[in-house]
Give the backbone structure.
Amino acid sequence: MERYHMLWNILYSKRGKKSSGRIRAERLRSVLAGKSSGIDGLLVTVGLCIIALLLCVVMKDRLEIFIRTIVDALTAKATGILG
């Protein structure tokens, strides 16, 4: 219903009549396609967060070993530089 309301506003508003035909056609195309300007990026971000969370849960033990290895290597390097 909202899509038809937006379509009505674009086609019959005073501002719509004053705008060029190309701009009105682009607005009409986006309304008919039902696309929102920022929903794609939001969905990608949420999807990537879910994947990262799943990887952390599934690979918890491996991740712990990986982080411990990095910390040990950095500690050894820092001790070599400072001591």
